[in-house]
Amino acid sequence: MASEFPALLATVLDAALIIASAVTLLAAYRVIRGPTVPDRVVALDTIGTNVVAIAILFALTTDTGLFITVGLVLAIIGFISTITVARFITEGDIIQ
């Protein structure tokens, strides 16, 4: 039972990578064809979140810690960009 766990975990990680990639492509479609600007912003935020998830899943798959750091940096950049765009949409200006 214990020897089957790493093979099952590798399969689950591969499936999660494929699903996260597919969802990212669907969000990219929403960015391109989104009817309104807020829809596109939400889709961009979703892409950022999915890229972080892909980086973490890839780090788990390859057992490389560098991609954890990359994921954290991408999460910080995504958070700042989402706040900036939301402020621009609501107030029309980023810096007052």
Q: Give the proportion of residues in helices.
A: over 70%
Tell me the total number of β-strands: 0
* Amino-to-carboxy terminus distance: 61 Å
Largest sheet: none
User: Strand portion, in percent?
Assistant: under 5%
**Mean pLDDT score, rounded?**
88
- The low-confidence runs, each spanning 5 or more residues with pLDDT under 50, are none
Along the chain, the helix and strand elements come as HHH
Morphology = elongated
How many separate helices?
A: 3
Rg over CA atoms: 17 Å
Task: Supply the helix-strand structural class.
Answer: mainly alpha
Give a topology summary.
Elements: H1 4-33, H2 37-62, H3 66-91
Helix pairs in contact: 1-2, 2-3
Textual characterization of the structure:
The structure is a single chain. The chain is mainly alpha-helical and 96 residues long. 85% of the residues lie in helices and 0% in strands. It is built from 3 helices and no strands. Helix 1 runs antiparallel to helix 2 and helix 2 packs antiparallel against helix 3. It is elongated, with a radius of gyration of 17 Å.
